[in-house]
Design brief:
The protein is α/β, with parallel strands linked by helices and about 550 residues long. The chain has 2 domains: about 220 residues, FAD/NAD(P)-binding domain (3-Layer(bba) Sandwich), CATH 3.50.50.60; about 160 residues, FAD/NAD(P)-binding domain, CATH 3.50.50.60. It is about 35% helix and about 20% strand. It contains 17 helices and 22 strands. The strands form 6 sheets. Strands 1, 2, 3, 4, 5, 6, 17 and 18 form an 8-stranded mixed β-sheet that branches. A 5-stranded parallel β-sheet has the order 7-16-8-9-12. A 3-stranded antiparallel β-sheet has the order 13-14-15, with no helix packed on it. α1 packs parallel to α15. The longest helix has 22 residues. It is globular and about 70 Å long. About 50% of the residues are buried. Bound molecules: ligand NA7. The site of ligand NA7 has 20 residues, from α5.
């Protein structure tokens, strides 16, 4: 192997939705030499790995895509309200082929370390295959939900059958006709449960926290509707990019308690019939995530639906959440109905914890052995920061990113960190909480604009100031504290990882406000960044 590093203008880490677009922007618009790396064997990021039965987006497909390629908006059509994992993967492959990006993506390659050298102003990247690259810029598009949380339950490794995490689903695993256990009932677990229950011999659901799940309202999209969407895409994207959660629906401005109880019930029923978790949470009333009374009104409406739907009262009781309706909203087709099936058993691990895993199944503390052929963990991810902890990233003066962050991550805009010049994160900690494709697109375009501006002006070093990073992180924390989300346990605050103290991982001000802030920062010549134009000798 050649010991000399290969020099590039920019490295992009990750070939998911963000990395694909970043490569395109930097290579085809900024004119840089770029290589993207991905540890997977193909593009797709989260949609490459999450191949479990039922995997699909739960934001309307017409806005779960890029907005930038106008021709593709006309040509590529989804068939149903929600795009399934294979469809999204096909779409991303089509984007990559259309823009001829594949030749600049190196697959099956994990970047293990990144080291910044101040004198040369270059980053050095080392891969798991021993290759070394240098680059002036690094964009990490690692995926906010790509580092698996795999609980270490006693005996886990003794199980005789497959033990799989949904985030690394083996392509050849078919659960049809098997006795399957699933741990976890988040958006992944509930999708798996709905999809797998009709095909398996028996499904045992190990539920820790009961979930509020509303119907998805999935349906085929008619040609007439799709033609209308094509005609109105400019308007649709305008609404997405100026809204709070970027999901395309009209967000409510009405406080729930400002209307009568009958009207509230009517609106909730309408939301229930329309389907979609984000729409139910943000489209029915404006203040479900903020006002405890409004939140309880929505929560008790959903609990009444559980009561009406689930035939066995004991199962209905276990499925009934009692905490705030303030986690990432979930929707599905027939989630609660699934528990009326004879081949589905619900175990509440809060009441009856898992004691151990044996070669043949899962034993709960009441002594029952649940016999299984396959054990599925839908236990989520070390969100936002997990992928950064897995890499050895050293910035100015050899400081490790993990040490800089200490016990909670921080950033400026979710994009940059003081002490790590010319390293830009797409969806780093404290990025905006919203539908991911428009959120990612926003950041990718902004980073590309910043890099383009630096190139034009001969600026060789772009670094967030310590004050900007602290200010943004504090603002995110203060905003989050106003939300009931901060009072529930979930990955959104990092509390799904055992031993983690609560931290703020998102900007909750909404996509529209986030974009406005980004615009103001550009108008103020990249306020919060130091831009240094000293000519750096490139010695490679
Ligand atoms: P989530 O939303 O983090 O859900 C994980 C689920 O796994 C949730 O029900 C957890 O219960 C449960 N869990 C986690 N650890 C354990 C242990 N140790 N024992 C039992 N149960 C456990 O992950 P998802 O993959 O569903 O979704 C993540 C995001 O990916 C999603 O929001 C989409 O944006 C895509 P808990 O609620 O913590 O009690």
């Amino acid at each position: 192997m050649n010991d000399r590093p290969t020099h590039l203008d920019s490295i992009v880490i990750g070939a998911g939705i963000a990395g694909i677009y970043m490569l395109h922007k930097l290579r085809d618009e900024a004119g840089l030499t770029v290589r993207a790396f991905d540890k997977a064997g193909d593009v797709g990021g989260t949609w490459y790995w999450n191949r479990y039965p039922g995997a699909a987006a739960d934001v309307d497909s017409i806005v779960y895509r890029y907005s930038f390629d106008k021709e593709m908006l006309r040509e590529w059509q989804w068939k149903t309200r929600y795009a399934t994992q294979p469809e999204i993967l096909d779409y991303l492959r089509a984007v990559v082929d259309r823009h001829d990006l594949r030749k600049d993506i190196q697959f099956d390659t994990a970047v293990q370390s990144l080291t910044y050298d101040e004198p040369s102003r270059l980053w050095t990247a080392r891969t798991d295959s021993g290759e070394v690259f240098t680059a002036r810029y690094v964009v990490s598009a690692l995926g906010p939900l790509s580092s698996a949380n795999f609980p270490d339950i006693p005996g886990r490794d003794t199980f005789a059958g497959p033990v799989v995490h949904t985030g690394a689903w083996p392509a050849d695993l078919d659960v049809a006709g098997k006795r399957v256990g699933i741990v976890g009932t988040g958006s992944t677990g509930t999708q798996f449960i709905c999809a797998a229950a009709p095909t398996v011999e028996h499904l045992t659901v190990f539920q820790r926290s009961a979930q509020y799940v509303v119907p998805s309202g999935d349906k085929p999209l008619s040609d007439t509707y799709l033609a209308e969407v094509r005609e109105n895409y400019d308007e649709i994207w305008e609404r997405v990019f100026t809204s709070r959660v970027g999901c395309g629906f009209q967000e409510s401005q009405t406080p729930a308690m400002s209307v009568s109880e009958a009207e509230r019930r009517r609106v909730f029923e309408e939301g229930w019939q329309a389907g979609n978790g984000f729409q139910f949470m943000f489209g029915t009333f404006a203040d479900l995530p903020f006002d405890p009374a409004a939140n309880e009104a929505a929560a008790s409406f959903i609990r009444s639906k559980i009561q009406q739907t689930v035939r066995d009262p004991e199962t209905a009781r276990k499925l009934m959440p009692t905490d705030y309706y303030a986690k990432r909203p979930i929707c599905n087709s027939g989630y609660y109905e699934t528990y009326n099936r004879d081949n589905v058993t619900l175990v509440s691990t809060k009441e009856n914890p898992i004691a151990r895993i044996t070669p043949t199944g899962v034993v709960t503390e009441d002594g029952t052995e649940h016999e299984l052929d396959v054990l599925v963990f839908a236990t989520g991810f070390d969100a936002m920061e997990g992928s950064y902890h897995r890499m050895d990233i050293r910035g100015r003066d050899g400081v490790r990113l993990g040490d800089h962050w200490g016990d909670a991550p921080s950033s400026y805009l979710g994009i940059a960190v003081n002490g790590f010049p010319n390293l830009f994160m797409v969806f780093g900690p404290n990025s905006v909480f919203c539908n991911l494709p428009p959120g990612l697109e926003t950041q990718v375009e902004w980073i590309a604009q910043l890099v383009g501006s630096a190139e034009e002006r001969g600026i060789t070093r772009v670094e967030a100031t310590a004050a900007a990073e602290e200010g943004w992180t504090t603002q995110c924390r203060e905003m989050a504290e106003h939300s009931l989300f901060a009072q529930t346990e979930s990955w959104i605050f990092g509390t799904n990882i055992p031993g983690r103290k609560r931290r703020t991982l998102f900007f909750f001000g909404g996509l529209g406000a986030y974009r406005e802030r980004l615009g103001e920062i550009v108008a103020a010549d990249y306020e919060g960044f130091t831009l240094d134009g000293r000519t750096a000798p490139v010695t490679v």
